């Protein structure tokens, strides 16, 4: 891509007590692209995402957004930048309806009271914009939705705010075949609409089906960030399991990425 | 090599957007089954109607205007305190200090009234004291890793003891006749205390359903983790509901002081279970996230009519307690079974 990354992390370190989870991690995300973030369990994917989202403060390192250095110290800071995260457990409240969930924590008000009409309209427009046809009523409780529908609502919640970066944590992990295809299609459409999308996944088929770039974490280090078209399944699997694959990956365990 | 792995899933092709059936904002009329609103809020209403019908058959004078006013005025104190309790329970918390704060608010108000002669100043002082206690209790409950049950239980004893100490264990009286009148008479023969409760319910229900703060309360109760990562100030919201509970407990204490023509530290204690009972019986979930003031209003009236009916039937107080327990159990079971069968269908 000709332009620089919309979101860029350099030298990120993060420890929980004595355990260092992230070592000098560099990570770049580009508009209009799906960047797959892969890695074994415990490699630090979720921690990295939570650092990006402001849930965990970073110990050291730089956070650049649209080329400018920023300081993110909470979920609101990230949201203000236009960074939205769709968590694995979806972060939806079962006993609230779709509109209430989409505006959770950021309700529209007219004067002192909530502006339900505007919120409903914005929610409808966003779902329409994503070509979502599976949801019939915006006042349905989230508890009554299928797994794929929930994922859709969670994604719609993330793009409602003209966000620039959307991070999806294992969006297809709990879905059946048809729903997985639907969600992947939606993921691709987000990127085609110009958003920068980060897809965390364990499923190589999903990764190769929709991503433009692959970033592989290995034991808290960024093993490699490569274009999807330039690597094979087996190379990515090697990066995930061994941290290196031929010329790619970590050399001599010093954390330098090729 | 790249081609072999690329484009495996057909999802890559940016499909031209198919004609979409646009999602229309739902009108609640078309969507009553799913619409969370006052229909679900009135799930205990049938039980209340049945109760009143049964009482009407068994005894006379249940549905006379004077008896209805009587039930309402007897329920006013519990009703007002139950507003605050509803907000607390909606966040998934519990406030056991309600009864003590009723005493503290009432004693403070009575003390200022007897020493200055101004009911207004007394009411303001009582409300201030109750809200301040609630704020402290709420801040502790929200910030420290101690469950609200323990924090508010401790507050129950501390507040009750402190109030007894400061009032030397005496009833603070006399209060002006006009202040006592507040619980006896009012426009249309309905006591001011009842009108006050009605207005407070309308305001509280509006705040719950139509303001961002009300929505936060539901969010925190529905799923605290989701609320946190969505940027809701969880601790602040939790602390605020206890402050609100303190506010309404103090108002209830002042109304009770008017009804008893004086205030003592221990006067609110026995009301605690009625208050929490009315909230839960009305259908507000103890787990948080689900409920409303409308439900609590129905719960308060239900308990009010149960005790009124027992008195009309001329039952001794021990019999009353047994039957009250049985009726509460039956009502709660009917409601629970109804919900269960709706979920199955």
UniProtKB/TrEMBL annotation, chain A:
Glycoprotein found in the keyword field: no
Domain of life: Bacteria
Keyword Nucleotide-binding: yes
Alphabetized CDD domains for the sequence: ABC_Carb_Monos_I
GO molecular function: ATP binding; ATP hydrolysis activity
InterPro entries in UniProt: AAA+_ATPase, ABC_carbohydrate_import_ATPase, ABC_transporter-like_ATP-bd, P-loop_NTPase
Name of the protein described by the UniProt record: ABC transporter ATP-binding protein
Matches recorded under Gene3D superfamilies: P-loop containing nucleotide triphosphate hydrolases (3.40.50.300)
Key words, A-Z: ATP-binding, Nucleotide-binding
SMART domains named among the record's database cross-references: AAA
Domain ABC transporter: from-to ranges: 7-244
TrEMBL record, chain B:
Name by which UniProt lists this protein: Ribose ABC transporter permease
Region (Disordered): 1-25
One function term, GO molecular function aspect: transmembrane transporter activity
Cell compartment(s), UniProt: Cell membrane
InterPro entries: ABC_transp_permease
Coiled-coil annotated spans: none
Membrane topology: Multi-pass membrane protein
Ranges annotated as spanning the membrane: 44-63, 75-94, 109-137, 149-169, 189-208, 241-265, 271-289, 296-316, 322-340
Signal peptide per UniProt: none
Top-level taxonomic group: Bacteria
UniProt keyword terms in alphabetical order: Cell inner membrane, Cell membrane, Membrane, Transmembrane, Transmembrane helix, Transport
A GO cellular-component term linked to this record: plasma membrane
